[in-house]
Each structure stands twice: as C-alpha cells, then as structure tokens.
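Task: sequence in, structure out. Protein: diguanylate cyclase.
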Amino acid sequence: MTLHLPTIAVIGLLLYFGIAVGFSLVMLMLRGQPVPRLWAASLWAAAINTAMFGLPLPIPEAASILIRNGFGMLSSVLMVAGVAMHVGRRPPWRAASALGGAYLLGIAWFSLVTPDLGTRLLMYGVVLTAFKFWEAWLLLRHAPAELRVSCRLAATVFLLDAALFLLRGLLPTAPDAGNEVMRAGLPIYIGYIGGLFVILAQTFALMILLVERQLVELRRLARTDELTGALNRAALLDDGQHQLALCQRQQRPFSALLLDLDFFKRINDTWGHQAGDDALRHSFRTLRDDLRSYDVLFGRYGGEEFVLFLPGVAMAQACALAERLRATLAAHPLARVEQPAIPLTVSIGVSEADVGASLDQLLARADAALYRAKASGRNRVVCDELAAGAGGTA
Ligand SMILES: Nc1nc2c(ncn2[C@@H]2O[C@H](COP(=O)(O)OP(=O)(O)OP(=O)(O)O)[C@@H](O)[C@H]2O)c(=O)[nH]1
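Result:
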C-alpha cells in the first residue's frame, strides 16, 4: 500500500469539514450555549489547519507553515477552553495561549532560521499531547458527579489521541523526507491513519458530553417546581417512596409533614397574584433555609401546600421540628419595597409511618392532622393521634 501525506491530509480535510459542519448544526440546535460554540469553532480551525496541510497555498512555504500551525493552536486553545467550561471551570485562556504562542515561536525558528521538519513534527506531537492530556485531566479531575460517565469516556478518547500525537512526534522522519513525511514507513502510517479514526471518536466523545449534560438538565427540569425551584410533586413522591421503603427495610422511623399556608386565597385577592407567587417563593426559601442542617426531602405538593419527608425521624422529633418551622415562617413576613410586609403563617399536620404503611396512607394521616390544625384556628401544628405517644401541639 502506498500512502502519501497529501492523500491522508485530503481524507482528514473531508472528515474535518464534515465534522465541523455537523457540529455547527448541533451548535445551532443548542443555541445560546457557549461550550458547543467553542467546540464548533475549534473543529473549524482544525479543518482549516488540515486543508492547508493537504492543499498547498501560493504563498511562501514558511508563511504557510506558520499560518497552518496558528490554526492548529487556535483549535487546541478553543477545545481546552470548552472542556474546562463544560466541567464548570474557568477557561484557561492565558495558560493555553501561552503554550500555543511558545509553540508558534519554536515553529517560526525551525522553519525560518534552521528549517527542520523532524523537529517541527516532534514539537507538534509533544504540544498536542500536552493539550490532550490537559483536556483528559480536566474531564477526570473536575467532572461533576452527574456527568462522570460521559467525562470518563471522553477522557479515554483524549488520552488515546494524546498517545497517537506522541507516537507521530517521536517517530523519526526519513533524513531526506522533506515534506514526504510518509516515507518513514508503517509506524507513521499507523500514527496518521489512527489519527483519522480518533478524529471521529473524539467527535462522538464531544457529542456524548453534550448529550449527558442535556439529559441531566431535562431530568432536573422534570423534577423541579418552576415557580419555587422546589422538588415537584412527582419527584417528591418518587423519592419519598424510595426513602420510605429503605427505612422500613432498616426498621427505622419515617415521618411526614404536610404544610399548608394559611388564608392564601386572601393574599391573592388582596395584593394580587404576583404577590401570591412571591409569598410562595419566600415561604419555600425561608423553610428550606431553616432545614439546611437536616437530611430531608422537601418539596411543593401543589398549590400552597408543601411536604417534608423525614427519613429516620420519629413522631416526637418531627412534631418539634414542625413547631420550629411554623414559628420560623411566622417570624419572617414577606418584605416588599415601599409597601407593608405580608404576614405569613402555616398550618402543619404530622404523621409517622406504621409498620408496612404506604406513602399514601402516611400522607392521608398527615392530611387529616392538617385538617384539624386548620379547623382549630390555623397557624398551628397537629400531630397524628394514631401514632404512638403523639399529641397535638398548638
Ligand atoms: N399566586 C398563586 N396562587 C396560587 C398558586 N397555586 C394555588 N394558588 C391559590 O391558592 C389559593 C388557595 O386557596 P384555599 O384552598 O381556599 O386555601 P386558603 O385561602 O389558604 O385557606 P386555608 O388553607 O383554609 O387557610 C387559591 O386561591 C389558589 O388559586 C400559585 O402557584 N400562585
């Protein structure tokens, strides 16, 4: 098989342009997101770099080498910046540009002052290896827990790419090769053709990173109440079911609080729906802040009702916590700009799960207790009388 560099470069060029176009479409789909934008720009810079490799320009060779390598470095800087942003780090613009700039100075020296293809290839291999290691390190070291799978897969591909860049850099070219790098034989073929496969693998790795992020975001949205940012009813019941089953297996107590804001309709009717929404947000945040030190499930059950599940907590402690929450909200009215604050109170029903009880039964008993709290004047806690040792508190 006879291979020569321009052939490989043309194949790489077609591949890179195809990938750059495809990724730009992905970027348009995910409009507004900076990471796909950086990666699409990186792939375009790599495509131009490859195009200049395969299709010689009518300009002096040294200028062509510098411009070509400039696009190569631009591609690497954009890629590592995108990877850093993807894992929630600040893009390392300065460090990456410094590495790219130092590399370009070296390339200028070894193309203008003492032209040496072997040294340029060595430098290219080493610097690209450094960039790929950097990207893999960012993905492995800083991946958020929920994105770990895709980050590990992508890091593996980046490390493979690093190994191929190192191989290509370290393999000596034939002494009289000139631009005919491929004359060095089979290992060089493997390095360059392997590189083409890794371009594809890297594109899929980038797609996997984006797909997992979108899935995590969709899942978060599906579990979140839009108005308050609390867990929504479906997520609350789902997680509650799971925690209740776990507590029952471990023979630990499990309690539930049903919290209902008092006279909420009056807030809407008196100060408007917007003030009602503000009151809901404020109530949730105030109660959540008071619960920060507890390992609990707290979310919006619907309308002006919230539910708190307390795994491992028995009735007496749950009632004490409910009383604390009631007092906290009563002490924190909704402050408004240049208008009187709106006082807020909450009625709370508390229940504890019996052996083998379902979540529905637990909530029904908390609801019955809440009904009694409302009937006996509101702004109070009632603990389910069926639970052992429990009593109402006002
Ligand atoms: N602003 C706003 N109001 C809501 C929202 N969800 C439910 N509501 C209102 O909450 C009010 C609840 O009214 P009621 O069920 O009569 O309860 P209440 O006025 O709090 O009376 P008690 O619970 O008996 O103290 C209704 O007017 C609903 O329209 C919401 O997301 N935003």
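The chain has twelve helices and seven strands.
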